[in-house]
Amino acid sequence: MRAARYGVVVMLALICLGPVLIMALTSLKVQTDIFAMPPVFFFAPTLDNYRAVLLQDRFGTYLGNSVFVGVVSTVLTLTIGTMAAYAIVRFRFVGRSVVSSTTLLLRSVPLAVLAVPVFVVWQDAGLLNSLWGLVLLYTAVNLPFTIWVLYGFIAQIPYELEEAAQIDGCGSLRILTTVVLPLIRPGLAAAAIFTFRIAWNEFILALVLTNRATRTLPVAASLYITDVGIEWGRLMALGVLIALPPLLITLIAARHIVAGLTAGAVKG
Amino acid sequence: MARVGAFKSMVNRSAPYMLAGPAVLVIGFGCLYPTLLALRLGMEQWSLGTPWSSATYVGLSAFGLALTDPVVLHSFGVTLAFAAVVVGCEMLLGTALALLLEQPMRGMAVFRTIFIAPMMVAPIVVGMMWRYLFDTQYGFANYLIGLVGIGPQTWLGDPVLAFAAIVLSDVWQWTPFVLIMVLAGLQNIDQSALEAARIDGATPLQAILRVKLPMLASVLVVTALMRLIDAFRVLEVIYALTFGGPGNATEVLPVLIYKTAFVSQKLGTASAISVLLLLVVSALSVAALAISNPMRDGRR
Questions:
Q1: Could you tell me which CATH class the domain A57-262 is placed in?
Q2: Class of domain B59-291
Q3: Which residue in A122, A198, B107, B221 has a CA-CA distance of 20 to 30 Å to B179?
Q4: Using DSSP, how many helices (H) and how many strands (E) does chain B show?
Q5: Among partner residues A38, A91, A116, which is closest to B261 by beta-carbon distance?
Q6: A9-60 pLDDT per residue, tens
Q7: B33–chain A Cβ distance below 8 A for any pair
Q8: Touching A: B residues 190-229, CB under 8 Å
Q9: Quick check: A61 pLDDT over 90?
Q10: List of chain B residues with pLDDT < 50
Q11: Which residue among A20, A37, A268 places its CB closest to the CB of B121?
Q12: Which regions of chain A carry the CATH code 1.10.3720.10?
């Protein structure tokens, strides 16, 4: 029975990693090996595809754009989201229930629904083709989930801790930074990972809202698919480069990802 | 002194507004306003690249037109079929695997990390990866079925096989989500109920059917609803894998909305279709929140 369970787990792991490994192997193959049938598993690896992708004239710009958008929207979302979640947990104020229920509902708005109106609004506001426009969008769509996750973590902090700080003369902001923040680190980690994942991976709105100068890596990757054909080696190399940061995060913070996935649905 | 006190209490009273203000502004401008604008834009007819002032108002009839358009109805059907099949497969597989892997086992942490990996890969990359795997001439899918004696298939050129391809890619990426949710739910089950069942002589299968699954009910329903919502939102994987083809065999609503807006350049029509999608997703979302609202007052 135990051996059977291990067998199932190993097979599952192979299925999960298989496609990603094939992508990685393909990125290391020369053209003739890529087109070999049956597929070759032992071949002389080459970095030519990576060289071609990295030396492409604008790769540095695209990478910079992706990093900027990913990091800035994560920092902004976490800052603004923590403040809002704290207000919703600890204060009774006018509009509180409207804010919290709207937040929960907006979490599920499909990005396809947002594409046209955001395009129109961003055009009017002069945010089209600007990295800040993308940052604003990703912050807005990630805030609902962030507030949702952090609400649960903040609600678990004993109020007495904050009261003690209040008696010591701390204001709301001091309490938030010195008492609350250190206690909700796992929640912040989960929210940060999910926000960064969306901002780094998102494609369709980045495609609509950017131009040659402000393109992010997923948009650059989509340009390898043309009517004429697909440069599989280079596309897979770029795919590996895009997938690498989120996978590295998974490796070091799987625990926090599980916390984020189950937040709100499974009472912990 | 009194003044300082008054100032302090004013600061305290305004504190929640200052704290929640930025989030309200950003969500309002970047998410809520565009969503509501989609409703309004659906009543207009205008093309990409022409000024907004050139749009003609067609009113609510736009929604009627969209709802009777065979292209939209077909797409709605594809979306429903896709959502039903992927969520059904993922729930069954994920729950079965969770029940199988429930007992603590050595090395599970490593495997759990591996199971999360597919969810973290960019959807556009997932689509490209599977497009390569399903290639007719040198794809891995044809190699695998060749091993069991089935001839090469034109996966992405056949309506049924292309649908199977988008289903497979989604099941690959999201079954682990169900697995992780159900595993977490199983950890919260009251052990005494299971103990009682064992003492009463329940077989392992009876324990699963009569004790575990009923106790997991709310987790299972919420997980299924979360997956359904996401299944209705899938766009990028299909964009890269089939772009809705062949023909419009895999053209789910989000793909149709994108194509209508940015390929056919009919922004008004695209918005009208968006409203249909928005209604479905919002209904599912309300249902999920009714069962499990993480911000309900008085939660511990």
A1: mainly alpha
A2: mainly alpha
A3: A198
A4: 14, 2
A5: A116
A6: 999 999 999 999 999 999 999 988 888 888 888 898 999 999 999 998 789 9
A7: yes
A8: 219, 222-223, 226, 229
A9: yes
A10: 1-2, 4, 298-300
A11: A20
A12: 57-262
